[in-house]
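User: Okay, second chain of the day. Same drill as before: sequence in, structure tokens out.
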Amino acid sequence: MQPRTGKGMESTADDSAQAAGATSLPEDFCAEIRSFAEALPELDYYQVLGIERDAPTAAVRDAFFDRSKRFHPDRYFNKELGPYEGLLHEIYKRVVAASEVLRDEQLRRGYDQTLPPPGQSKAKAPPLVRSGPVKDAAAEAAKEAKTAAKAKPRKSLRDRGGLRAPNAGIQGLQRQLESSREKSQKQLELAREHGAKGDWSKAAHAARLALAFDPRDKKNHEALAEYLTRANAEGAQRMRADGMVALGRGEEEQAFELLSEAFQLQPTDAELAFKVAELCRRLHGDEPERALEYALRAAELDPRVVAYRKLLGLTYAALGRNAEARKELQRAWELDPMDKDVKQALGSL
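Assistant: Same drill. Structure tokens below.
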């Protein structure tokens, strides 16, 4: 069974198609959103992110960024989204849930067991257009399962006599599955209680546990997508504020840790990526490749900002990649011919 986004997705996509004129988005992108939304209920998490089932964690992270850059509603805050706003939210929630599950080894293993063999699903997602930790929850579920496996049930007279009761193994497995479902249901109810109170972090944690106990229940996937998206936005805002306070105090290492974590939760914030790249260059100047990822993200998210292009060019130059450095600095100079730093950097290449 594939996790679904909730009933009504197909009709919502159809409504959007009929109301295409009520948006300032390009028509080809509107068609892409509609197509993705219509297929979404049948897509597994690998298809949502556009990656193979054996994709490493780094590929999951990169796919999450690419999908976020394409479908995060905040990327289009200055446009009239009309009926497509709801579709973008639904797509992004699934992207968040897919990333969360596939980046965690234990949750991913449990989820993989629910999937049909590769190639059996006919649904397809659009191709990638490139330009509180889950481990705690999974570990807790694994600990519960390990404890249950070690528990020794009382032996029947037949067992004590060396004769194993018929179907004992099947019955034991059934009891274990029933226990996991019960625990999953309790965690799901707890997640909904926290969600009703607006405590998104606790709601997301409980939803993770519910999913770890029963990865086949689509309600667990829906809950994780809903609550985790809200928890990430809330957490990113908090960590960004704390990071800026630390930066103001001159505590750059702490600021770097906080701001980089905030960006991982909210990967469409170009200014945040820029600040992390700047800090990385100052703190780890001997390892410019660490700053390159964030500098690239900032420039991709907002290519019209001179500071982002300039930082990317300087980072390429520090890596000795002069052709790429010259290209980015030239773009920065075209955006602002009066920038002396850009002119000087170009002259030094």
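Residues 194 and 275 are 33 Å apart (CA to CA).

User: Thanks, on to the next one.
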